[in-house]
Amino acid sequence: MKIEIWSDIMCPFCYIGKRRLESALEDFEFADQVQIEWKSFLLNPDMVTDPSKSTLEYLSETKGWSMAQTKQVSQQVVEMAAGEGLTYHMDKTVVANAKNAHRLLQLAKTLGKGGEMKERLLKAYFTEGANIDDQATLVKLAVEVGLPEKRVIACLGSNEFADKVEQDIYESRQIGVRGVPFFVVDRKYGISGAQPKEAFDQTIRKAWEDYMKTNPVLQVAENLDGSSCDVEGNCE
User: Fold this and answer.
1) Can you point out the beta strands (E) in 41-84?
2) From the centroid of its chain, how far is CA 135?
3) How far is residue 28's CA from residue 46's CA, in Å, rounded to a whole number?
4) According to the model, what pLDDT value does residue 217 have?
5) What is the pTM assigned to this prediction?
6) Nearest to 36 by CA among 49, 47, 25, 48
7) All domains of the chain in start order, with CATH
8) What secondary structure letter does DSSP report for 31?
9) What's the pLDDT tens digit per position in 14-67?
10) Phi and psi dihedrals of 39, rounded to 5?
11) Are strands 50-54 and 94-95 parallel, antiparallel or unpaired?
12) Intra-chain end-to-end CA distance of the chain, in Å
């Protein structure tokens, strides 16, 4: 069974939704048979990176809120994240275009490290206040999760995987994604937003029931004696 997740690294609810999905999977007895694929989505593709400005300042300016209002709204998100065991430092988050970080994520997916890279990028942004549009920072984060340094540098020094990012975004529009996080289970069920864990529980189990109808597991009778030969050629 496959779960595809459209999300942006700069979306605070995407990290929260990730944790709630993971919590649901911890209670799902067939979690080892669930494949997770992270899809790219850009909330603000034209954002200009400005390391001197925090996202709180950016929100205050673009939304027309006072800084007091901005901090109040931000604190609600911080508390929601804390409920999932996450530490957000919204006052340290940097205004940064996420395109290069998404290209790095696409590279990581080809190397079997998509989940690890997604987690590291989210933590770097929301907890550590890292500039996710800085090449040296991205190289450091990628190496930490096991990606080859030279391969990462070559990717970030080019426009590699930009088409994959755009493809994910185009695909999201085709299936009606209007906001993130957005979870698609086996292309049959969708979960919009960082829903409570119970919503993930119910959807995953319903999708699994459907999956098993078309992909039944062979039940092998136990405690019955029968002659056979194993893969090593031993017969008894």
Assistant:
1) 50-54
2) 20
3) 39
4) 55
5) 0.89
6) 25
7) 2-213 (3.40.30.10)
8) G
9) 999 999 999 999 999 999 999 999 999 999 999 999 999 999 999 999 999 999
10) -110, 145
11) antiparallel
12) 37
